[in-house]
What we know:
Order of helices and strands: EHEHEHEE
Distance between the termini: 21 Å
Radius of gyration: 13 Å
Helix content: 25-40%
Amino acid sequence: xxxxxxxxxxxxxxxxxxxxxxxxxxxxxxxxxxxxxxxxxxxxxxxxxxxxxxxxxxxxxxxxxxxxxxxxxxxxxxxxxxxxxxxxxxxx
Length: 92
């Protein structure tokens, strides 16, 4: 289950259903705590994250361009915090 976890990915590839899947998962209470990308997020996935925040009043922090080093470093079981300014902190 990805509920309440940080979903860390290299990137997303635009899909017309991707944004709606994020929104539906949010409405059903099945989204990760945040989406973190080492590269750029595509516009359709970004739209899904934005719309889920607007339509549910419950934002899902989404940060991109964290770099390959971030993705290589982060592991299961680590604590990840995303501040309001987009700063991502990873603790063992």
